[in-house]
UniProtKB/TrEMBL annotation:
<dbReference type="GO" id="GO:0005524">
    <property type="term" value="F:ATP binding"/>
</dbReference>
<keyword id="KW-0813">Transport</keyword>
<dbReference type="InterPro" id="IPR003439">
    <property type="entry name" value="ABC_transporter-like_ATP-bd"/>
</dbReference>
<feature type="domain" description="ABC transporter">
    <location>
        <begin position="6"/>
        <end position="236"/>
    </location>
</feature>
<dbReference type="InterPro" id="IPR017871">
    <property type="entry name" value="ABC_transporter-like_CS"/>
</dbReference>
<dbReference type="GO" id="GO:0016887">
    <property type="term" value="F:ATP hydrolysis activity"/>
</dbReference>
<dbReference type="InterPro" id="IPR008995">
    <property type="entry name" value="Mo/tungstate-bd_C_term_dom"/>
</dbReference>
<dbReference type="GO" id="GO:0043190">
    <property type="term" value="C:ATP-binding cassette (ABC) transporter complex"/>
</dbReference>
<keyword id="KW-0067">ATP-binding</keyword>
<dbReference type="InterPro" id="IPR003593">
    <property type="entry name" value="AAA+_ATPase"/>
</dbReference>
<dbReference type="InterPro" id="IPR027417">
    <property type="entry name" value="P-loop_NTPase"/>
</dbReference>
<dbReference type="InterPro" id="IPR012340">
    <property type="entry name" value="NA-bd_OB-fold"/>
</dbReference>
<dbReference type="GO" id="GO:0015697">
    <property type="term" value="P:quaternary ammonium group transport"/>
</dbReference>
<dbReference type="Pfam" id="PF08402">
    <property type="entry name" value="TOBE_2"/>
</dbReference>
<dbReference type="GO" id="GO:0022857">
    <property type="term" value="F:transmembrane transporter activity"/>
</dbReference>
<dbReference type="InterPro" id="IPR013611">
    <property type="entry name" value="Transp-assoc_OB_typ2"/>
</dbReference>
<keyword id="KW-0547">Nucleotide-binding</keyword>
């Protein structure tokens, strides 16, 4: 087996009593776009800072091309960085900002000038060399920060919530630019965000962080279709949960009783699945459907419509089952039931069991 390009090996970081990162291990391939996704405080930035050399781990190792990085100071790691706030030098022009890391590396002037022009072209800011950062928009400043990080051609680029200070439209525009730049340069990117949509849009793979550990690593599709934990199921996409109890199981799938009359056959189970254990059954709102009679080939529960919201490409219907469980349903635009639903109306909520996942504690 070939050595992985970048290896994070059993990294732990404690600040006094707080364990910010607890035994994180991850391999990243050369040229991969890997995103650390998770809520605030889950250890994403700390892991990134350890890669950058801005923090030292309490234990564990980081290897690039099979060699430890821990004894290399940050400025010698050859890793580019772009952070949340535009960290441009305000007293330097755009061109001087981008040239800075190359000057520090004592590159000859002709090489620096060519690299600055190349980097500006990459972020589509040709001709902006002499502009001062204060005379540019937030999005332009962040593109300059990106150009500066890429100018000396680092093999690895770290990005910590680089777009969080920008409005939605600009954020989407620059996400598109970042994807293009990733494809054009082949640079390996580690990207931190708490925004699932951003992670899905950008990444080859996503590592989902929760409380200092990685719950699951996979492509967006894998995480969405096969979440390993309830946390991942809730964090990627929308989810509904029904309380159930395991009737029978082979450890991988289980027959799960919901209420008195319904048994869901062969649902994928995660966690400690034993007969009699409680299980939270996850359903995706867009995989649910509504009808006036139960659907015999699928799981169906009687419910009452609580609220109906038209959202353009889908209609969001909030329903409540006889056992007071709330199921949110998303009907695609044009669904025959969507137009006529009213609060208080009885309905049957149905789903295909193959889209269900059960999580046991
Ligand atoms: P994230 O990037 O996912 O928001 P962080 O890695 O910044 O999370 O933080 C993880 C945990 O470590 C949090 O509980 C945070 O309060 C704590 N933490 C981070 N940096 C420090 C620090 N310098 N001193 C003490 N605690 C810290």
């Amino acid at each position: 087996m070939t050595t992985p390009f970048l290896q994070i090996r059993n990294i732990r970081k404690a600040y006094g009593d707080v364990t910010a990162v607890n035994d994180v291990t991850l391999d990243i391939a050369q040229g991969e776009f890997m995103t650390f996704l998770g809520p605030s405080g889950s250890g994403k930035s700390t892991t990134l800072y350890i890669l950058a050399g801005l923090q030292n781990p309490t234990s564990g190792d980081i290897l690039l091309d099979g060699r430890t990085l821990l004894d290399t100071p940050p400025h010698k790691r050859n890793i580019g960085m772009v952070f949340q706030r535009y960290t441009l030098f305000p007293h330097l022009s755009v061109g001087e900002n981008i040239a800075f890391p190359l000057r520090v590396r004592r590159k000859p002037k002709a090489e620096v000038d060519a690299a600055v022009r190349r980097a500006l072209k990459l972020v589509r800011l040709e001709g902006f060399e002499d502009r001062m950062p204060a005379k540019m928009s937030g999005g332009q400043q962040q593109r300059v920060a990106l150009a500066r990080a890429l100018a000396y051609d680092p093999p690895v680029l770290l990005m910590d919530e680089p777009l969080s200070a920008l409005d939605k439209k600009l954020r989407e525009e620059i996400q598109y630019e970042i994807r293009r730049i990733h494809q054009e340069t082949g640079v390996t990117i580690l990207y931190v965000t708490h925004d699932q949509e951003e992670a899905l849009r950008l990444s080859d793979r996503i590592a989902v962080f929760s409380k200092g550990v990685i719950d699951q690593v996979g492509t967006g599709t894998e995480l969405y279709a096969n979440p390993a934990t309830r946390f991942v199921a809730e964090f990627i996409g929308d989810s509904d949960f029904l309380k159930g109890r395991i009737e029978a199981t082979d450890g991988k799938s289980a027959d799960i009783r919901i209420g008195e009359h319904l048994i869901l056959p062969a649902v994928s189970v995660h966690g400690s699945a034993r007969p009699g254990n409680e299980a939270a059954v996850m359903l995706r709102p867009e995989r649910l459907t509504l009808s006036s009679t139960p659907v015999s080939t699928a799981g169906s529960l009687a419910a009452t419509v609580k609220d109906v919201t038209f959202l353009g490409n889908n209609t969001h219907v909030l329903t409540e089952t006889a056992t007071q469980e709330v199921l949110s349903v998303r009907l695609p635009f044009g669904h025959e039931a969507a137009g006529s639903l009213r609060p208080g109306q009885p309905v049957w909520v149905s789903w295909d069991s193959s889209s269900a996942h059960a999580f046991c504690t």
